[in-house]
Amino acid sequence: AKGKSWAKKGDWKAKHNASLTAKGPGKMANKKGAGKTGQAGAGKHGFVAKGGKTGGKMGGKMGGKMGGKMGKNSTKDFVEEMITKFLEMPAPWKNEAVSANRPLVFMHQHRAGGTTLRKLLYNETMHLVCATGPRLTWIHGVNCRAFKNNVSDAAVYGGEFCWSGKHVSCVTNFREPISRITSCYAQRLVAKRKVAPYCMAKLEPQKLKTLLVNYGCVNEPFRRLGQCGVQTGADATDKRKRMQIWNNTLQNLASCVPILVDHQETFSAAVKHFPQFKQAFWHMKKEKFNLNSYPK
């Protein structure tokens, strides 16, 4: 947003120091359409830009500097340096005319209002199709564990998959970490999968960690934005591997416009970047999210 940022750097540390990726929104809406992402990344890393300012130049700097510092004898995780470089990246480019050649991809992160947003985007897409003719098509219902998408002629995509090969726009959803973890535990582990007890405190720490990681309750951004796969390696004991995943996630996130569903002011950036879908994003303000209560 011109002349403003969603969150100052100091404010983020106070509000979101529990979440590595939540810092993204602070800078990405801070510049008016600066830079381009270039072509979406090749291979399995869906949103690494190749050839635009974001991916080519900054990605090379980050990779080089981090690679040089991450020697076996180093004991430090260079999280602060990675975040600083991330915040220096240009904002994603605006897409005022979403089309099959310049599609909009909603990277759906679970337990963060994503299902509601997918429905709203779908409804808005159908409205645009009726108003402008069949130039916009939609894909939804992609299996969240497949991480694949074989459809190439749609203009709006919503799901949980990796991406390559097109000049895409991206929007993704975040939620305050503790609320999302609690919601994920109650809905996914207790109610749906039935692999965890009603009371989280009954689990041994290592068992709790394994469940939260295996079912995406604590590492969802790394699964969607870091690499293609359910097991991300974001908590790997090998420092080089661990920081590479973190770095990949931040580089890919730089191509996306993030929405913090707990902070309605962040919806304005999505509206500015994708004005065709402003009604869908503004409607999110009216939605109430679950209270993370356990099933009775």
TrEMBL record:
Q: Where is this region: Disordered?
A: 1-71
User: Gly residues: which segments have biased composition?
Assistant: 35-44, 52-70
What InterPro entries is this protein classified in?
P-loop_NTPase (IPR027417)
Protein's recorded name = Uncharacterized protein
- Print the organism lineage: Eukaryota, Sar, Alveolata, Dinophyceae, Suessiales
